[in-house]
Amino acid sequence: MNIPADLKYTSDHEWIKIDGDIATIGITDFAQSELGDIVYVEIETEGDNLEKGEVFGTVEAVKTVSDLFMPVKGEVIEVNDKIEASPESVNDNPYEDGWMIKVKLADMSQLDDLLSAEAYEAEVA
Predict the structure, then answer these.
(1) Is residue 24 a part of any domain in this protein?
(2) How far apart are the C-alpha atoms of 116 and 6, rounded to whole Å?
(3) What is the CATH number of the domain that holds 39?
(4) Domains contained in the chain, number
């Protein structure tokens, strides 16, 4: 299982990469493997200001549909259009091509509540 050390994680299996006040968010390798073959990703929250814990979209796999939760408060400034046309990229490379949204952070202190790679690995082991 791939759990990059430079990312932060949530118990809901989202990852977050911080670059200044912009966060790139997606689902973890563990999450995509548990879901199975992803056939559709729906994210219609671009431009929305969302609270931590709010749903920002859904992922549909062959066997289930799962909500995607905001790991931090912020404005969704970009949606990865490539995953709409090629949802399998979330399975193939969830940390690069399979990212889902970019968010302008509203509260940097919320980053302290996220899990390190080691803590996340302990949760899913």
Answers:
(1) yes
(2) 8
(3) 2.40.50.100
(4) 1
CB-based contact 98:29 (threshold 8 Å): no
- Please answer whether residues 103 and 22 qualify as being in contact, where contact means their C-beta atoms are separated by less than 8 angstroms: yes
Residue type, 67: D
Return d(Cα 85, Cα 91) in angstroms, integer.
Answer: 14
Domain encompassing residue 53: 8-110
**pTM, 2 dp:** 0.95
Is 123 inside any structural domain?
A: no
Beta bridge partners of 55: 69
Sort strands 101-105 and 55-61 into parallel, antiparallel or unpaired. Answer: unpaired
Whether residue 118 is contained in a domain is answered as: no
pLDDT tens-digit series, residues 52-70: 999 999 999 998 999 999 9
Place of tokens 């994210």: 43
